[in-house]
Structures are given as C-alpha cells and as structure tokens.
Design brief:
The complex is a heterodimer. Chain A is mostly helical. Chain A has 17 helices and no strands. The longest helix of chain A has about 40 residues. Chain B is globular. In chain B, helix 4 links the parallel strand 1 and strand 2. The chains are: A mainly alpha, B alpha/beta. The interface between A and B is large, with 69 and 49 residues.
Chain lengths: ~500, ~350
C-alpha cells in the first residue's frame, strides 16, 4: 500500500481509530494485523518471505543469547547468511546469472540456467537489514533477545517503516512496542503535520519533477547536454523529495500511533562536502553501514591504503544494496572515489580560517560555504546520473552528451518539442517555483526556532497547512505514483 | 558543534512532557475532534473558494489546453435549446473525424461526436442533455469502434475524460450504483466537489492524450500494453467483490474477435435504448470503419450490437495510428481525403443521405 494512495487515506484513519479504542494488551495484535494487510496489499504471497526472515532472526536471537564462544558466533553467521541468502536469491540471482550468461556467450560456452521470473519482494532490503541489525546487536550484547514472537514480528513488520525505512535499531524501536501510548492530541497533530509535509514533497514536488525527468531521460541520445543537466538537477531534487517525503510520512504515521522513529534526512543538499552529505542523507542506512561494516573493517583508524579499501567496499556494497545492476555499483564507487579524493586533497591544501570575524572575512566565509555547497550538490547530482540511467551505457551516453559537442544541441528543441506533454513552459515554471519553495521552506524551518512553526500564531500555522493541502489538490499528482526507493 | 535543527525536528518536535493524569483520554479525544473539525471545515471553505476562483480563471482562458475540449464543446451544444434538431450523432474520436462538430449539413442535424474515453456513460449523458434541449429529435446515431465498447472506465482515462466532464451528483451516484468502484467514485465525487480545482490540476500536469497519432491511442484501440502494478490493489479487489460480472464472450471462429460490451457499455447502451424508446426516438448503433490489415483483428458481431455491417477493409496506409485516419488523401491535400472517402462510403452503406 502506498502512503500517497486512496487506500492508505482510508486505511490509516480507520485502523488508527481502532488502535486507540483497543485495550493496551491487544494493540500489538492489531498493529501486526494492520502491517500484514499493508504488506499484503502489494503481493500477498511475499508475506511468507517476511515470515521466514522473522522466524530465522527470532530463533537466531534466542540461540545467540543462550550460547557463548564459537557457537554464539556461528549462530550469528547462520542468521546473516540466511538473510543475505534471501537477498541474494531474490535481488541478485538474475543479475549474477545474466552476467555469467553474457560471459559464457562471449566464450561460446553453453549456459542453460535461465533467470528467475519473479518480482523483488517490496522493501526486502530494508527489512532484512533491520532484522540483521537485531541479531548483530544481540550478539554484541547491546540488546536482549526478544522472547515474544508477536512483538518481534512487529519490530520487523511495523507498517509505517516496513517497506522503505527508516531502518531502525532494536534498542530504539523494540521496547516501544511494550510501552503504552495513550492518545495525545498534540502528538497526533504533530504526526499528521509531518505526514502532510511528506505528502506535499512527494505528491507535489517529486512527482511533478519526475514527469520532466522521465521525459528527458527516456531519450538521452536525442537531447542536448543542457537539457540533460537540467533533468539531472531535477532528479536530485526529485529523489530527495520522494524519499524524504516517504520518511516524513513514515515518521509522522508512527508518531500518530505514539512511536518515535529515527530522523532519516537532515537537509543533505546543504552539505559542504560529500562526507557531510552521507551524514545527512538516508541516515538510517549510512549509520547501518558505518556500525556494521565500516567500523568492523577498521574504520578510519587504519593505514591510508586500508582506509581507501574500506571506503570503497562500503560504498560498492551500498551501491549494490540499492539495486542489482552495474550502474548502481558505479554510483556507489563514484561516491567512494569522492571521499577518497577529498581526503587526499585535504592533505595537500591549507584549510582557510573560517573563524575570522571581520565583515570582509565573514562575507568570504559565506561565499566559500556557498561555493562548497554548490560543488557538493553538483558532485552528488553527477553521481545521480548513474543511479537514474537505466543502464551503464545510457549513463555513458548522457555524460558524453553533457561533456561533448552536443551540449547546445538543445537549442534545436524548443520547450514542448520533446513529444511529451510533461515538458512545457507551464510544467517548467511550476517545477522551478516548487524547488524555490522547498529550499525556502527548509531554510526557514532549519534556521528558526526548533519548534518554529509550532510556536507561531494559529492563523500562521493553519495558513501553512491549508496552503499545502490546497496545493496538493491543485497541482499534486493524485494518481498514487510509486516511490523510487520501493524497488530496493 | 551542535547539530543544526532540521525540518523534521521542526515538524516533529521533542515529545512534550507527560500530561497530568487528570487530563483524561476522553478530553484528548474531544480536543482532537474539535480542532480537526474546525480545521476541516476551514479547509472545505477555502477549497470551495479556490474552486470558485479557478472556475473564473478557466472561463477566462476558455478552458484552453484542457483535456477533452471536444467533450466540453459537445456539452455546451447540448445546453443550447434547438427546436430544429431532428438527428443527433454521437461517437468516438474516429466518428469525430468523420462527423466533426460544426460540420453539420444543416440545422436539423447536430454532431456531438467526442471520444471513447468518456465511455458509453458519457455518450448516454450527452444524449440525455440533448433530449432536454431538442424536443423534436427523431433519430440518434451512435458511431462506435468495436473495441471501444470494451471500455469499462479504466483509471488512466476516466478521471480526466469522463469524471472531468460528467460529475453531477446524480451521475456520481449512478456510476457508483452501476460499477461499485470505490476508487473511481472517490475521484468522481472529488470532481463533483471541486470541479475547477480538479480541472486546473488536469491542466497543469501531463496526462494521456487521445489525439490521433498519440502513443496512448494504441492502448485505447484495445491493443495490449504493459500493465503497471495497481497502486490501489486493495480497493480494486474490494470493488471487484461488488462489481457486476464480466461480460460473456461468445465463441467465434479462429482469427476473429467478437464485439463485446463491457459492463459499463452494457448498462448505458441499455439505458440509452430505454430513453430513446420512452421518447419514441430511433437509436441506430453503427460501427466506425476499422482496418483488419493494420490490427490483424477481424471483428464480428454475433450479438447484433450494431445495426449495420462492419467496414473492416480500411487499408493500413490510410491510418495515422491503429484507428484514426491520416489527414489528406491519396493525392495529398488535393482531391478527396481518406476521411471524406470513408464518410461517403458509410453514407452509402448505411443509407445516411441526410448527412450528405
């Protein structure tokens, strides 16, 4: 079920009302049932895969806690292998198989194994990672094994964050299912406001931009570089609004029910370096990789060559986590390269003194900051080309057209000539206005008091909510378009 | 260094301190209900105000760029009183090429041809409107492609083309009673409540085009297209439990396809027939010409839905897509066009001399 669908618009108020009317003891049953319905709305059969993930890690958690030494380690490895095995079968089998077949054809060998004809279970990468976090934390002794199968199932299946995160840690989420969450009107309103903001970002901004991006990326070899740069910038904003919009809706929905989920985005495009970008983008996944892969590999307390190796491993796996294709691997590798290059360059240059107080220096500092933000945004946007392009070859075409003599070929097109109703003066003006609105809104909210909007007079607050609601009706894409991150 | 507060923090502030025990759950519910009722009432009022403003704007731009301008035009025609009209012609987009609104041979004929995306429901409502304003109608001609009868109000077209133009309360209720489609009825009710906001929404975003030559016409003509996952699967299944049964498809010889009415077409063709009979009007259902050469389908009519034979031998090179005629003719812009040739053939075959 999509958060931006009519089904959810009916499902959420109904199930939430029932949730608060039920006695505390049975609320978990209700939430679990709701989560099953929510997930089954995609493909019911895939509930069985989810059940397998739950059972494997529930039993593994108990066994890890009870055992010690090599057995403890063995149970953890078994659990991780089972989880990664599921991912490998459903997500990576066809990718690996296609590559082996291509190699076999190249070598003129007979290769009879066919690809599996199945759809990737929605959100599999998210809930397997959340489930693996549980067994690892039990192994490390940071989390007690959960004995209640129903509560543990809820930890994996809690519907607001089931299919696209945030990827929670057991220490943060698991105990909340045992707590009583009374109906608190203020908290419910706060949750609804966050859902509204997330919905606005998704339905109004991301889906509008997507129409333009799709139109241009559908025919990269026929479009000039200038158009492709515009589409790439738009995609950078689109994917941010799409995914952070989903996260806001997930966090808001959980908050309505009384649960606290971790923040997943923190204005990533305001970052002054790619390293900072990764501390602000998809925080729940970045910290997962940091805690369970990067630090176990040695983190940054190793020699420079080993650190470079660690970074590339983490980012290659992160890229492949997003999708089983070489273009995702290239996207991850590019980010790894950015980090390594930044560290190598930082060793060579002297850091400017940003602490100076004179007006001239302050102005220079602001300019330098703006320059860094722009450079970081463009580096990240460049990497998005690999993420968005259907294949590595398409990404190559796009980069060649951006860098080559086809850059101004777009002058041959006038707006609206791309044979797509998505690309008109009106859609472009609306898209530009929405991006300006987004940047302003995020800047204002981030630079004001932490409860900026909540502390304003009621007419200001309600005017903001009414504006968002009316804009959703007026210019929102009301057709329940899917979220980009659902494919992962 | 302290972390900068984020938007999420602003919208999702830290949990407030625990409330006094005396503040009961009941009081919290009351507070929630009171605030949300006020908020929703305000939202409704503001949305209706915006709807009114956008209505003026849309009238000012004369609905330029709106989807289904031909439907709007047809509706405006049906709202004008015309005592002289004896014959009305309804039909899909191919019929619109053949019998274009404004090209009537005289005041006794009114062309109300539109497109198949408004479904048979839209054709029926257009006829109803015409009956009210043209009391002396004796004949109704409906020209429809065989595949167009299968249109059962799919989501892609229906919201903009049907709901966008036919959203009176009675129509919303009738479509719900007939189709029992929850998602469609919500969209339809939205059009009833905020017709101008929804029209402005359609204007401001890319949508399916039904113009001759556009890619989506291929799907409209009944050819296979990739089916995207249904984002409203749950509601679709729920609606499926209440929906009328699928039509019976009669057996036909291999290589042929029967003309079949979808449940929507079945209901509204019957309704149109009933309306006509009650008013003593003759209804003639006739096929638009099709190209077996182009589509590799030979349509047959075992249920005698049509009142005339199907012209199936239109050469593929006369069509711009799977169903629509190219502009011009064999000699380019000179001489008789493909459309004129097809129209004359239909007039001869079906005895439509009044259309000459």
């Amino acid at each position: 079920m999509l958060f931006n669908s009519l089904s959810f618009l009916l499902f959420f108020p109904l199930t939430t009302a029932i949730y608060f009317l039920l006695p505390r003891q049975v609320r978990w049953v209700h939430l679990l049932a709701c989560s099953c319905v929510f997930y089954a709305a995609f493909i019911p059969g895939y509930l069985l895969i989810l059940l397998a993930v739950i059972l494997i890690d529930y039993i593994a958690g108990l066994l890890i806690e009870r055992s010690s030494g090599e057995y403890r380690r063995a149970f953890l490895i078994l659990s991780l292998v089972a989880n990664i095995g599921l991912l490998a079968v459903f997500k990576y089998f066809n990718f690996a198989n296609s590559n082996i077949r291509a190699l076999a054809e190249f070598l003129h060998w007979h290769y009879p194994i066919k690809n599996l004809g199945m759809i990737l279970p929605i959100g599999l990468s998210f809930h397997t990672f959340q489930s693996m976090a549980y067994t690892i934390e039990v192994y490390r002794g940071n989390q007690k094994a959960e004995r209640h199968l129903g509560i543990y199932s809820l930890y994996v299946m809690f519907y607001p964050q089931l299919v696209a995160g945030p990827i929670e840690r057991p220490q943060h989420l698991l105990h909340q299912f045992r707590e009583y969450h009374p109906f608190d009107a203020e908290r419910v309103f706060d949750g609804l406001k966050q859902m509204l903001w997330g919905g606005f970002k998704k339905v109004v901004i991301a889906d509008r931009l997507s129409a333009i991006v799709d139109a241009i990326y559908a025919q990269p070899s026929h479009v000039g570089g200038a158009y492709l740069i515009l589409a790439t910038w738009f995609f950078a904003i689109q994917i941010y609004c799409d995914f952070s919009g989903y996260s806001d809706m997930a966090i808001g929905a959980a908050r309505v029910l009384g649960f606290r989920l971790m923040t997943n985005f923190d204005r990533p495009y305001a970052s002054q370096s790619v390293a900072e970008f990764w501390r602000r983008w998809h925080i729940s996944l970045s910290t997962w990789f940091r805690d369970y892969l990067y630090i176990p590999l040695g983190g940054s307390r190793v020699t420079l060559p080993r650190w470079c190796f660690n970074v590339m491993v983490v980012f290659l796996i992160s890229g492949m986590w997003h999708g089983a294709s070489w273009s995702f691997a290239a996207w991850g590798a590019l980010h790894g390269f950015y980090l390594i290059a930044a560290r190598l360059i930082s060793r060579l240059r002297r850091k400017p003194d940003l602490g100076a107080t004179s007006a001239g220096n302050a102005f220079s500092a602001v300019l330098l900051k703006a320059f860094r933000v722009l450079v970081t945004f463009n580096l990240v946007a460049f990497a998005w080309i690999f993420f968005r392009a259907p294949t590595l070859a398409d990404a190559g075409t796009i980069i060649r057209r951006i860098a080559g003599r086809h850059f101004w070929e777009s002058a041959a097109f006038t707006v609206g000539d791309l044979n797509s109703p998505a690309f008109t003066i009106v859609t472009l003006i609306i898209a530009a206005a929405l991006i300006v609105f987004l940047l302003l809104a995020e800047w204002l909210l981030a630079h004001g008091d932490i409860r900026a909007l909540n502390n304003k007079p009621i007419w200001v607050r309600w005017a903001a909510y009414y504006s968002m609601g009316l804009l959703i009706l007026w210019i929102g894409a009301l057709g329940a378009r899917s979220f980009i991150y659902f494919q992962f | 260094m302290t972390r900068m507060p984020s938007v999420s923090d602003s919208l999702n502030p830290p949990a407030p301190p625990a409330r006094p025990a005396a503040q009961s759950q009941r009081a919290e519910f009351r507070k929630f209900l009171a605030t949300s009722t006020c908020f929703l009432a305000g939202f409704l009022g503001l949305s209706l105000a915006l709807n009114g403003i956008l209505g003026k704007y849309l009238r000012w731009i004369d609905h330029r760029g709106g989807l289904g301008g031909e439907v709007q035009l047809a509706i405006e025609h049906t709202e004008k009183k015309r005592d002289s009209v004896r014959v009305i012609v309804l039909g899909d987009s191919v019929a619109r090429q053949l019998f274009k609104q404004g090209s009537e041979p005289g005041p006794q004929v009114r062309f109300l041809t539109t497109n198949q995306a408004i479904t048979m429901a839209g054709q029926c409502y257009l006829a109803e409107g015409a009956f009210k304003q043209c009391p002396h109608i004796t004949d109704v001609y409906l020209f429809y492609l065989p595949a167009a009868f299968m249109n059962n109000m799919p989501r892609d077209f229906t919201h903009d083309y049907f709901c966008g133009h036919f959203h009176a309360a009675a129509q919303v209720i009738e479509v719900w009673k007939m189709k029992r489609d929850i998602e469609l009825s919500f969209a339809h009710a939205g059009r009833w409540l905020w017709p101008n906001i929804m029209a402005a929404n359609s204007l401001s975003r890319p949508a399916f085009s039904l113009e001759p030559g556009s890619a989506t016409v291929e799907t409209a003509a009944g050819e296979t297209a990739p089916v995207p996952p249904d984002p409203e699967r749950l509601l679709t299944q729920l609606s499926g439990l209440m929906a009328p049964p699928d039509p019976h498809i009669p057996a036909v010889p291999a290589g042929k396809a029967p003309v079949v009415l979808s449940p929507v077409s079945q209901y509204y063709v019957a309704k149109l027939r009933g309306d006509c009979t009650a008013r003593g009007i003759r209804l003639h259902v006739l096929p638009c010409p099709v190209s077996t050469e182009k589509n590799h389908i030979l349509f047959v009519d075992p249920n005698h839905i049509y009142d005339g034979p199907i012209i199936s031998d239109i050469p593929a090179n006369q069509l711009i897509d799977s169903v629509h005629f190219k502009k011009g003719g064999p000699d380019g812009d000179k001489g008789i066009s493909f459309v004129q040739a097809a129209r004359q053939r239909m007039i001869r075959l079906y005895g439509l001399d009044f259309l000459k």
